[in-house]
Amino acid sequence: MLISKDFKFDAAHNLVHYHGKCERLHGHTYRLRIVLEGEPDSEGMIIDFIDLKNIVKDKVISRLDHAYINDIIPQPSAENIALWVWHELEEIVKRENCCLYEVHVWETETSCVILRRSDISCRR
User: Fold this and answer.
1) Where do the structural domains in the chain lie, given as residue ranges?
2) How far apart are CA 116 and CA 105, in angstroms?
C-alpha cells in the first residue's frame, strides 16, 4: 500500500553548471510529494499523516522555504533537490511497517521529477 502527503514551499536558486536562463537567480513555488510504502499497523495506519507532516516540515520545509537553495544544495536542480530530500527523510520515516518509496518535486505546475527507492539502490 502507498500513502502520500503533499507540501509547498517557495525558494530561490540558480543553476551554476547550466547554460541558459536558469543560470540566473530566480524562484519557484515548489510542490513536494512524499510517498511511503507499507502495511497498516495495529492502529490501521501506515503512518499517522500528522506525524508525516511534522517530520517533513521539520526536516525539509523549514530549511527550504524562503531560502536560497544554493546555500544548501550546490546545484539545486529538481533532481538534486529530490535526492537531498530523500537523504534527509529516508531514515527518519522508516518504521517496522513502512519506508520511503518516492519523492516528487515539481518546479512548475507541469514539470516534475520523481525519485523512487529503486533509483537509489541502482545508483552506481
Assistant:
1) 2-121
2) 12
Residue 37 forms beta bridges with which residues?
2, 99
Please, are residues 112 and 78 in contact by the beta-carbon 8 Å criterion?
A: yes
Q: Which pLDDT does position 124 carry in this prediction? A: 37
Sequence-ordered list of residues with C-beta below 8 angstroms from that of 108, at least 6 positions apart, any chain = 28
Q: Over the chain, what is the mean pLDDT?
A: 94
CATH of the structural domain 2-121, one choice from 3.40.50.300, 3.20.20.150, 3.30.479.10, 3.10.50.30: 3.30.479.10
Catalytic residues: 22, 66, 107
Q: Which residues lie below 8 Å from residue 105, measured CB to CB, with a gap of 6+?
A: 30, 31, 32, 78, 81, 82, 85, 112, 113, 115
Give the pLDDT score at 121.
63
The pLDDT score that the predictor gives to residue 123 is 47
